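A common beginner's mistake is to predict each chain separately and then try to dock the pieces by hand. The better habit, illustrated here, is to supply every component at once so that their relative placement is modeled jointly.
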Amino acid sequence: MDLRSFFGILPPRILYRDASSPVESIPLPEKVTLLWPGKPASFLKVGVGEEVKTGQNLAKKKDLVFISPVSGQVEEVFTLPGLGRGEDLAITIRVKEQDSYETSLEPVEDFSKLKPMELRELIMEAGFDDLSSISNVPAIWPQVDCLIISALDLDPISCSNRQAFQMNAEHLTDSVQLLLSATQAPRCVLAVPDDMMGHVPQNLPGDCTVAGVANVYPNGLREILAKEHGAGRLMESDGNGIRGNTVVVGAEHALAMAVSLRQGRPFVEKFVAVGGGENGQPKSFKVRIGTPVAHVLKEAGLSASPKGKLIINGIMRGYACFSDQQPVTSSTDCIHVQAQGQVFFYQDIPCINCGKCDAICPVDLAVGLLGRMAEYGKFEECRDIGAQNCIDCGLCAYVCPAKRPLVHFISNAKHAILLEESKAGSGSI
Ligand code: SF4
Ligand code: SF4
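With all components supplied together, the output reads:
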């Protein structure tokens, strides 16, 4: 995957893993766990012991969506320390073998007959939050100058978007029409790895162009696609409002949106790449949302080692999984097992000023300096040299010969800056 340059003079070229392996289905687990970040149990309309159906919205309030991916009985409701701020609500459901569906979604025959806001509401109701940066309040709709549907992946070992694109490309025209209507973007770009151009359908709408992109990391990151192939800046919402002009939706979700709305069935299953361990070759699976990582690993013939690591969503941008009971969510693209001897340890040694991190940073940050400022809590200085522009690609830490935890330092600084900015409007730190 990683082609190191001659004597390390040039930065490494990190290729995305091959996505041509067959996709198997993981059988339903005994129980699923669903996570609802930052929500209290009072937002649930079901309690322990109640029956739920596949596709049922478990949220009490009409404008919220919390879909059950299985049919079964609620066994437990509890809270977990969240990955963001605060706690996540968690609910476990004992699974019945057969799905029985209950959903308010009606199949849509003609997307052009619905208003943009109605389409966005249906997309949200089907369990997708990809358009959450676009407000549903017409008075503050941001201008979307470009929509990108990306068949590239977010990490070198993920392949969800490429696999969905290869297997379901015939639905792309439908997806493009749906997303153009829902976002009101004047144009659409279909970003495709240059070795998969043969899968592009012939009948794309006239306002959709195709961009071939080298299958090299980090070309699939949304910020890079928005800059290189869109209108310049990825649209994101934070505490201070909405910024940017380009919406990027991964091909897996874009295709699933069209199919969900056509069939009137919410999104309950996704592609997950699983690999690593001593001998584990990566394999691809379709997994029901909520399935515990332990169940996926068992079915994939892998197991977590007590002194190893489980990494969710990739070696460059992923995070360590604190328990193998953690569930697959709608954004889980891959699960990577590291055996004890494969775990990478960061070191607490000073920067040797080699400049490798600066040379590889795709957004041209002075990463060595930024890392040192962030390490010593100088967050105002971090903001002044552009810490917020870091796109968390992980390349700086990957090349650092001193094994400095650069991404962790910079993430900490970004978090501190954001916290201060949201407390004080745009005031100083
Ligand atoms: S993680 Fe951030 S600072 Fe490091 S190379 Fe990527 S964009 Fe640059
Ligand atoms: S790569 Fe590591 S050692 Fe080299 S300048 Fe960057 S932080 Fe310092």
